[in-house]
Amino acid sequence: MTSEGWGTPPVEPISQHYIVCGGNALAHRLILELVEHYEVPVVVLVADRTRDHAPRIEQLPGVAAVVEYTSITDEALRAVSIGTARGLALVEGSDQENIHAALSAQNHNPDIRIVFRMFNQRLGENIERLLRNGAALSGSATAAPAFAAAALGRPNSVEIDGRYLHIAFDDAITSDRVCVVADQIDRQDLSKIRLLPEQQGDSAAFVRLAREFGDDGPIRPGGVRREPVREAGAETRAEIRAEAGAEVAPGTEPEPEGEGEEEPGGTAALQVLRIEPREPIGWRRRLRWRVLDTMRFFTSARMRLVLLTAFAAVLMAFGVLWYLNRNFGWTVYISLLDLAGAAQPDQLSDIAAGSGTGGFWQRVAQVVITICGITFAPVATAIAVEVLGSGRRGQPRSPGAGTRDHVIVVGLGNVGTRVATQLHELGVPVVCMERDPQARGVAAVRALGIPVVMGDGPFEEQLRRARLKHSRALVAVSGDDATNLEAALEARHGNPEVRVVVRLFDDDFAGHFYKTLDNAASRSVSYLAAPAFAAALMGREVRGTLSVFRHALLIAELAVEDGSGLIGLNRHDLEDPGGVRVIAVRFARGAHLQWGVPDRTRRLTPGDRIVVAATRSGLARLNTVALEEDSGEDPEEGAGEAG
Fold first, then answer.
1. What mean pLDDT do residues 115-123 have?
2. Residues 6+ away with beta carbon under 8 Å from 356
3. Cis ω for the linkage preceding 577 (within 30 of 0)
4. What integer best gives the mean pLDDT of the chain?
């Protein structure tokens, strides 16, 4: 039920609950995670129950109470029964406010689990040491890699023990994949996607062959057998044949129904890269872009004509000097001095005495070079000032004419700043757009030398200044869905080939977006970050989140501790009834992580660590099992009594 009135505590006494402080999109998703997947009572503390997502949060079934206080004070914490709560999540407010609230909550309840959002991750790590049982997470840091990877048209990756896990689709799936993570992928109806479909086991291919052939199965002449039909979510035909050792004669593969039409539904698999791929840009391309950037000073046709004429005159004069003196080094020397206006002219007395330096034609050539130098000097000065000025730390820099193959990031909030920084670290050229000059990310990206287009004019003009026609992708990550969609549509209108990545909270909105736009991707910061916050609130570590379109696959590491419900379970127990795949194990006596452990019957012991790929509900189930401690009743003993 929901509390009534301003600042009122829950109507009924409550204990062993979880408190979420915030009414933003992340708080909304986090509460959904807790009530739907972990099935725990939640009390929500909001600053204004009429703004942001607070009205929708009040309507969620499973929310025990919604309490309104303008700030997280001691009175507000007592109102949400902080003394009897199991966990507290602070997902709104500034870093300073969250630190103060976390320390206050610990004073009221020293044993409570505290998870707080921090943009400054280094400061968050230091604050963690001051808390007995706390964790600092950054929603933007969790979600930014997915946006950056989507902009580059490649899957996001999560680093585990020096290996990078990523999602591959259809033809990109290789034989050394870790596991199949999704099937029935239909871009026109993303609700059909099945994450971690029913486990079939390592011998599934042989089982399918046995069912297909039996003792008297069909055999082709020459001992060549007919391949089994591919089941939904199973491996490709080539992989089935390779795993089962079946041999198929060329030209005997059965044609799928519809002659040449693709089978409905795609497949996604988890794969491992040895290193995180970068996006290096060769020095030749960089040099060419620098030259083009310099050429912006010569954009006027009249200016180009004047400069080219002057340059041709200098070359002709240089040739005359070299012809008269036959000394190339001296000719270069005197030409440069003349260009700078510092040459020593002949005197009348020297000419009368016959001691002049080169005669009439040399003097003409020097005069020509000197006059042309007057034309070149202002341009050279302007270039030098521009280069030195733009290199100063924190100074604004506009995209130059040499900006090519770049990514445009719209919005420099927490997420936009991290996306721009990550792309910059990968060596990808970035141009940012921001309408608010006070946005926290403006100074940060300018310090990295990233150009920023400022202003509140129409998107068409802003995108033109950001050199949209020469860009590879646009990432719209402002806090407003409508603004992000407007930027994406305007970008696609100005450059039909540009890839667009849009931050959208609403799932229906995102579904229409996928249906209408090709070469596009949609991500939700709260959807990507909420599972990590929920798992951290339960005391578990989510190493990263991978995206399968609008669905999230979690990579988590769980420690098997004394008293944990994981003790005695094997791989079959962990992966049944679904939603979880064990991808690596570090045994208590081993120092290294073992990938693809074939022994599915080995039971976990204290000190073991497992790495799993899981859906949100699958990880919630594992966390529930892991947190079960001895309650004085042995499950086997209880089963015996029941029998």
1. 91
2. 346, 350, 363
3. yes
4. 78
What are 130-177's pLDDT values in tens digits? 898 999 999 888 889 889 988 988 777 888 888 888 888 888 888 888
Nearest CA to 533 out of 3, 118, 205 is that of 118
pTM above 0.70, yes or no: no
Residue 409: the pLDDT is 96
Distances (CA, A) of 288 to 293, 387, 402, 404, 642: 9, 16, 8, 10, 79
Residue 260 — very low, low, confident or very high, per pLDDT cuts 50/70/90? Answer: very low
Number of H helices and E strands in the chain, helices first, is 22, 24
**Is the CA virtual torsion 357, 363, 367, 368 positive or negative?**
negative
User: Per residue in 312-343, pLDDT tens?
Assistant: 888 888 888 888 777 788 788 878 777 777 76
Q: In what order do the strands lie in the sheet with 134-137?
A: 63-68, 42-46, 18-21, 87-90, 113-117, 134-137
What backbone torsions phi and psi does residue 383 show, to the nearest 5 degrees?
-65, -45
User: Quick one: tokens of 554?
Assistant: 């979690």
401 DSSP assignment: T
Residue 35: its pLDDT value, please? 92
For residue 142, give the amino acid letter. T
Residue listed under structure tokens 């030195």:
388
Q: Is the pLDDT of residue 230 over 80?
A: no
pLDDT for 246 equals: 38
Strand 157-160 to 134-137 pairing = unpaired
Cβ atoms of residues 523 and 530 within 8 Å: no
DSSP E strands: which ranges in 417-492? Answer: 430-434, 452-454, 473-476
CB 158 within 8 A of CB 556: no
- Determine the Cα–Cα distance for residues 560 and 567; give it in Å rounded to an integer: 7
Torsion angles phi and psi, residue 633, rounded to 5: -120, 120
Spell out the residues 6+ positions from residue 176 whose beta carbon is closer than 8 angstroms to its own. Answer: 271, 272
Measure the CA–CA gap between 91 and 278, rounded to whole angstroms. 32
**Conformational region of residue 572, where left means phi above 0, alpha means psi within -120 to 50, and beta covers everything else:** alpha
What torsion do the CA atoms of 36, 39, 40, 43 make, to the nearest 10 degrees? Answer: 30
For range 375-403, the mean pLDDT: 64
pLDDT over 80 at 2, yes or no? no
CA-to-CA dists, residue 405 to 146, 428, 499, angstroms = 20, 8, 11
